Amino acid sequence: MEASCPASGRRWVALVDGGNGCVEVCDIVEWRREDEELFGYICDTGRAVHGHKGRVVRADRHPGFLTYERRPQVVGALPGMGWTVCYRLDAPPDGADGFERRPVLAWLVYDDGTVTPCDVDHDGLVYCSTDTPELVHVEPPDPAPG
Q1: Could you tell me the pTM of the whole model?
Q2: Which domain of life is it from (predicted)?
Q3: What residues contact 121, with CB distance under 8 A and at least 6 apart?
């Protein structure tokens, strides 16, 4: 069976307590039916038995297993169309308003209906804007002169 077995085309992960307050996100690589139940399998993180890292193991039997979770998948992208994301700066330069503004490169569309902006910095690196705690707001493009 494929990893998308429970709901075709959907991404599932297992959350595993990695210790020290860290939760590992492990992709489900396979689903297997056992006694009328489906169980997800992950690549072993190597914590259970020394030398077994990368071995496919049943997720719910892995040390620290917390739960299965469905994660949305990107199904499309739309152009940024002049939108801007604004981040709060910790130490704004003199005379600055305390925000860094970056152009939205694209809007990612997920299979659950969520749409999130991706911006590009001055070095050309692309970021998912909503993954950054410093995100303050998203500004629409300036209205066209009428």
Answers
A1: 0.63
A2: Bacteria
A3: 102, 127
CA 34 – CA 59 distance, rounded (Å): 13
Strand order in the sheet with 11-19: 22-27, 11-19, 65-71
Q: What is the pLDDT of residues 93-117, one digit of tens each?
A: 666 678 889 999 999 999 989 999 9
Rounded Cα gap, residues 135 and 126, in angstroms: 14
Q: Which two tokens stand for residue 71?
A: 């994660």
Res 47: pLDDT: 56
Phi (first) and psi of residue 80, to 5 degrees:
-65, -30
54: CB partners within 8 A, 6+ apart: 43, 44, 46
Q: In 3-state terms, what secondary structure has residue 29?
A: coil
Q: Provide the mean pLDDT of the chain.
A: 84
Q: Show Cβ contacts of residue 133 under 8 Å, excluding neighbours closer than 6 positions.
A: none
Cα separation, 84 vs 103, whole angstroms:
5
